[in-house]
Each structure stands twice: as C-alpha cells, then as structure tokens.
Amino acid sequence: MGTMAHEPSPCTIKSPVMLQVGDMRTELGRPGVAVIDVILPHSQTIDLQEIVFKNYYTAFLSLRVLRQSSAGGGDESPSKWVTCLRNYCLMPHPHTEEGSQDYFSVSRPQMLCDMDRVAAIRLILRQPSPVWLHFSIEELQLFPVNQKSPQKGFPAWLSCPSQERPAGLHDGLPDADRVSSEVQQMWVLTEMLQASQPAGQIGRFDVDGCYDLNLLSYT
Length: 219
What we know:
Blueprint lengths: L11 E2 L3 E5 L8 E10 L8 E9 L3 E8 L12 E10 L13 E5 L10 E9 L9 E9 L31 H21 L9 E2 L2 E2 L1 H4 L3
Antiparallel strand pairs: 1-3, 2-3, 3-8, 4-7, 4-9, 5-6, 5-8, 10-11
C-alpha cells in the first residue's frame, strides 16, 4: 500500500517546439521561447493537485490547461484553453546559475484558475538571457488531488510568494497567450497536412532549421 502513495498520473509529453526571438541568421537571434504540450490518455481528465519537474535553464514558466466542460452533454460550454500560471520565476537571475537545475513544485493554490477536469497542459518556457541557448524542463510529473509528491529538495526561495524580478527581462519575448494560440494553430494545420499527405514528412514551418513566428501567425 505504501508504494502507491506517490503515484503520478500517466501522460504523454510532446517534444518541445522552439520559437525564435530575433533574426536567427544573426548573432542577435536566439530560441527564447519553447512550448511543451502534455496530453492525458484518450478521453481521460485529471483533477490536478500538483506539477513537479526539474528545471533546465528555463527562467520563467507559464501554464495553460485545456479544461473539459462540466456540462452534461450539451454544446453550450465547450472545452477551452485557460491560463493558470503566468511568468512564474524559476531563475531569480536568468544570467546566473541560481535555480537553473533545481526541482520545482507548482501546486493547486498557486494556480489562477480551477484545475479540475484537466485534459491537457501547455507549458510555455521563457529564457530572456542570451547566455543559455538550450533550456527545457525534465522529469515532469502530474499528481492528482489526494496525491502528494515526494520531496526532492525544492529551493528555499520558492516559499516566498512575491519574487523580485529584474526589470526588462521580458523585453523582446512574445506574450505567453499569443504564443500558445499560434502554436495551437500550427499543430492543427500540421495535423491537417499530415492527414492529406500520409506518405511524406512535413516540416513544422521551419526556415533554415528554425521556426519563424511570422509563419506561425496566419489568421
């Protein structure tokens, strides 16, 4: 019975999609934003209590969740993406190592919206510092209500609800909601193209090996 105390929910973690900031053909260009989608098994939802992960040089984290409607079966209240965490600081000083490889826990009371009936999660990672060209998160686990994650030595400064962030860190980075919307459109279009051409491989709007935000916005 003790082995079930810290059982995370099964999920599928998609590969990160890196979005460019600036012209990648020059020294000023860099992949300053990454998007990771987490999908639950087909037709399943979770009443999410906590998200646990290990950082890898991500400075700020935003979360959006796809919540299933509580309506009995009508079409009046469809599922939709909502922002539940905005620009959560993982590295207090993005140009230095602090927090870059720490374990983090984001729990239900920290969220901006109801975390019941969650069918998918979108993580939007930001790194404004040009020092770190590669950033992500690792060992991601989702814990439902009534489950408690094992402690993994979370940094002490996380207990402070108000985290000071140096001014100007987000300059030049696109808005998290806009990034999420454009990536959703990109993946929908990719699925449509793959369905119409099952025999061929389709690049995800890459230009010279990188993603161009101008190509992601087509509405």
